[in-house]
């Protein structure tokens, strides 16, 4: 292998830059040339590809987002788009590719591998929705961003004796709401994995008020509804002062946490090491803080286990 490519695809996540930096620097350390592919699979189709040297990744380890840009590229899913991408890969003499993204991006990586281009996936998404790995790149930073917001909202809501609904990202996976709820002392956590009825929500809030709680926090994953509709549903049932905060894209940005910088650096270097050694069609993950690799098809088949223990703990600890 003489030349590899690296791209970021799907939603951006803090720590992607640390991973890009590690891919580039590790590969150069092994005398391999690295090409940066811009805006995910779109860059492959449009031949928007640039040579990366040591200084091209200088001063990025602390930055959120991705210096390569990212996109959702429907054209890559079509035969015509995919073939254009293959032509450009061959034209640029790219021997293997590292894809940093989520499960959709891994589907693309799988197809490239099947077409004879060794490809390695690095899990990059704030949602932590890839079942085969304990943590995805960006999740830890997003969690800390949410916690910071919860702390700020707590200050003001206890002064005003309010209940707050905080809506966070997570369409199918409630990890951001669950773990920020546990770490932030939320009274109620509403996530796709554990549907909850309105009576239980209202009883929990009322019980807290009766005990003299000055405020309460309801964490809501976007996949479980809308903060303002939930507010209406609760206030239709009983008289309570509720405010809504929809955190939105603030969760995707920001300087990556120490954890995500370390994870990105380790995943990036391991990805480059494996690719340079001829391995392809695998994704990287962590278990007990050790990095492992797994066949892409196997990894994508694994279903996410719900952390029932953490969910129950939020209820017990917010009594
Ligand atoms: P994520 O990687 O964060 O899950 P998406 O699901 O939006 O994000 O996927 C990112 C990109 O990966 C898509 O825009 C597309 O270019 C590519 N992709 C997704 N699914 C497939 C697929 N089945 N085949 C080929 N490419 C795909």
UniProtKB/TrEMBL annotation:
Subunit structure: Homotetramer.
E.C. code: 2.7.1.11
Organism per entry: Dethiosulfatibacter aminovorans DSM 17477
Record family assignment: Belongs to the phosphofructokinase type A (PFKA) family. ATP-dependent PFK group I subfamily. Prokaryotic clade 'B1' sub-subfamily.
Ligand binding (ATP): 11, 72-73, 102-105
UniProt cross-references to HAMAP family, sorted A to Z: Phosphofructokinase_I_B1 (MF_00339)
Activity regulation summary: Allosterically activated by ADP and other diphosphonucleosides, and allosterically inhibited by phosphoenolpyruvate.
Chain sites annotated for binding ADP: 21-25, 154, 185-187, 211, 213-215
Reported function: Catalyzes the phosphorylation of D-fructose 6-phosphate to fructose 1,6-bisphosphate by ATP, the first committing step of glycolysis.
Positions with a binding annotation for substrate: 125-127, 162, 169-171, 222, 243, 249-252
Active site: 127 (proton acceptor)
Enzyme class: transferase
Cofactor annotation: Mg(2+)
NCBIfam families: PFKA_ATP, PRK03202.1
UniProt GO molecular function: 6-phosphofructokinase activity; AMP binding; ATP binding; fructose-6-phosphate binding; identical protein binding; metal ion binding; monosaccharide binding
Cellular compartments per GO CC: 6-phosphofructokinase complex
InterPro entries: ATP_PFK, ATP_PFK_prok-type, PFKA_ATP_prok, Phosphofructokinase_dom, PKF_sf
Record keywords: Allosteric enzyme, ATP-binding, Cytoplasm, Glycolysis, Kinase, Magnesium, Metal-binding, Nucleotide-binding, Transferase
UniProt: Mg(2+) binding residues: 103
Pathway(s) where this gene product acts: Carbohydrate degradation; glycolysis; D-glyceraldehyde 3-phosphate and glycerone phosphate from D-glucose: step 3/4
Statement: the UniProt record of this protein carries the keyword Transmembrane helix: no
Entry's Gene Ontology BP terms: canonical glycolysis; fructose 1,6-bisphosphate metabolic process; fructose 6-phosphate metabolic process
SUPFAM superfamilies: Phosphofructokinase
Name of the gene this protein is made from: pfkA
Cell location: Cytoplasm
Catalytic activity: beta-D-fructose 6-phosphate + ATP = beta-D-fructose 1,6-bisphosphate + ADP + H(+)
Lineage: superkingdom: Bacteria
Protein name: ATP-dependent 6-phosphofructokinase
